[in-house]
Write a structure and sequence with these properties.
- With 477 residues, the protein is an alpha/beta fold.
- The chain is built from 14 helices and 13 strands.
- The chain starts with a helix and ends with a strand.
Length: 477
């Protein structure tokens, strides 16, 4: 039993070594880097999968997880009968001792989960937590050595255990190496901020772009692109006198930064689940990036770590603008941020003339927003991802007076944007086509399969979903 526990820790770390060090050394680096450093299957699996696609799916979702977790999990399960055999010797106390064993096993599982998930990963990262757990479990191996009946056996087994633990701990990758490998870049090109919520990283490119990744998925970056700046800017510009704004999701900071450039606002609150995003923002500020330095110095900037939906549920505040820029809808557990119930909650936290702004990743997202809000305007930014869409929605009419928009935008500080970006943004405000999705009329007839609900987040389960039809849209004045 003790030796099995010993090898639980050893095999767990050896599996990590095999993935990060051994597989790349024997010729698998290109394939692994292509997957881990790319978008993976964020966009779905597709409908016409070939043999090569299934081979990749089998590798990533079967072979790699089995290689990392198979041996430790097998050893943990195989060791349980040994303990059961010990307590089964006395029939009279079998029930009580079996209950105690299961109770202790449950307590150990819960304690280990809480300790690793909320303490060790925060302090030492994933790779450091592996080392600590391996070293801790190794103690029971030395207990097995002490129980050996022959002195020579103790010496041989003890020496082997020491060598095995030492080699495993020395060969295990650092946290920086682990996540650099997972992102497909050299160590110096990645900045890691890991805590119990997320692995948040910055990948640098040769042209100075710092791209944000959350749990391996690429997000936006810095310098800020026009698309995310407009999501933060436009919902404020369409209002006469906005005072308070809420950004659900900080990400790379672009929408929060854009809202802070409107001097009419009294405060801008940001709620971000991945606290490491703020840490990376501080890192970019320390590099001398003025956008983040100005954001940190702005007294109106309020940064909170937490769940955006919980924030909406627990505060009584009302906002003039709410922007939503969170995880992709195909991500696990994303359903509660793209559902009818979520948008109804957002609506309750808006003033009557308040506006919510969000990117539109799927037609279901647009359908769901349009079902909740009676006034919905869709805009397209051709310069971003070949025509990315975002939406403005409100319970009141959205007045898109282009002259007023440009006049209000002109009041933003000149240092907020570079001259080329300012010119592009002004051109967008002057010329961008609008598409009316709703203009106050009642919207009916959206089938359940074409929208998202809390209990049926269809976009989250993208594998077997049919594409939802487009809504009919017309030009807005």
């Amino acid at each position: 039993f003790l030796w099995m526990q010993f090898f639980v820790g050893i095999t767990a770390t050896v599996a990590l070594i095999g993935l990060v060090r051994i597989l790349p050394a024997i010729g698998f680096e290109a394939g692994l880097t292509e997957y881990f450093g790319g978008e993976g299957y964020n966009g779905g699996f597709g409908r016409d999968l070939g043999a090569r696609d299934w081979a990749k799916i089998s590798l990533i979702y079967l072979a790699v997880p089995l290689g990392i977790m198979g041996a430790p999990v097998l050893l943990m399960g195989a060791s349980f009968p040994f303990v059961q055999a010990v307590i089964a010797r006395d029939v009279e106390t079998l029930g009580r001792r079996t209950g105690l064993l299961l109770f202790m096993n449950t307590c150990g599982n819960v304690a280990g989960t809480l300790l690793s998930g909320f303490v060790l990963i925060d302090l030492f990262g994933t790779a450091g937590t592996y080392r600590i757990l391996t070293a801790t479990i190794a103690i029971v191996g030395f207990g097995a050595v002490l129980l050996a009946p022959v002195r020579r056996t103790k010496l041989v087994h003890g020496s082997l255990a020491v060598v095995l633990v030492g080699v495993t701990l020395v060969a295990s990758p650092s946290n920086q190496r682990l996540w650099s490998f997972m992102h497909g870049v050299p160590d110096p090109d990645l900045v890691v901020a890991e805590d119990h919520s997320c692995v948040t990283t910055l990948k640098y490119t040769d042209d100075g772009q710092a791209n944000l990744h959350i749990n391996g998925s690429g997000q936006n970056g810095h310098p800020f692109d026009d698309f995310h700046v407009l999501i933060g800017t436009l919902p404020l510009l369409v209002q006469d006198d906005p005072e308070r704004a809420l950004a659900i999701g900080f990400g790379a900071g672009s929408t929060t930064f854009a809202m802070l450039q409107d001097t009419r606002l009294d405060d801008v609150t940001t709620v971000e689940l991945c606290g490491g995003a703020y840490e990376l923002g501080d890192h970019l500020a320390s590099e001398g990036r003025r956008d983040f330095q100005r954001m940190k110095a702005d007294p109106r900037y309020v940064a909170k770590v937490g769940d955006g939906r919980k924030h909406l549920l627990t505060v009584d505040d009302r906002y003039d603008v709410v922007t939503v820029d969170t995880l992709r809808p195909t991500s696990a557990f994303s359903g509660s941020l793209y559902s009818t119930e979520f948008y109804k909650l957002v609506d309750r936290r808006l003033h009557d003339s308040g506006v919510v702004a969000q990117w539109i990743p799927t037609i279901r997202t647009l359908n769901t927003i349009s079902e909740v809000f009676p006034h919905v305007v869709l805009l397209r930014v051709d310069s971003y991802n070949e025509g990315a869409l975002f939406v403005l929605a409100s319970r009141s009419p959205i007045l898109f007076d282009r002259a007023a928009l440009i006049e209000r935008f002109a009041r933003t500080p000149q240092e907020s944007y570079t001259p080329p970006q300012r010119e592009r943004l002004e051109t967008f405000l002057r010329d961008a086509p609008l598409f009316c999705v709703r203009n106050g009329e009642r919207l009916t007839g959206i089938a359940t399969r074409h929208k998202n609900n809390d209990l049926r987040p269809r976009d989250e389960y993208f594998l077997n979903n049919d594409d939802a039809p487009d809504l009919a849209t017309g030009g807005c004045r």
